[in-house]
Amino acid sequence: MPKEEFNPELAQQLAVANRILVAQSVLDTFGHVSVRDSLHKDRFLLARNMAPGAVRAEDIIAYDLDSKPIDAGGRSSYLERFIHGEIYRTHPEVNAVVHSHSASIIPFGTTDVPLKPIYHMASFLGAGAPIFEIREAGGDATDLLISNNALGKALAAKLGNAPVMLLRGHGDVAVGTSLRQAIFRAVFAEVNAKIAAQALLIGRGHANFLNEGESMAAAKTIDSQVARALELWESEALASMS
Ligand SMILES: [Zn+2]
Question: How far, in Å, from the CA of 110 to the mean position of ligand 1?
Answer without folding.
Answer: 15
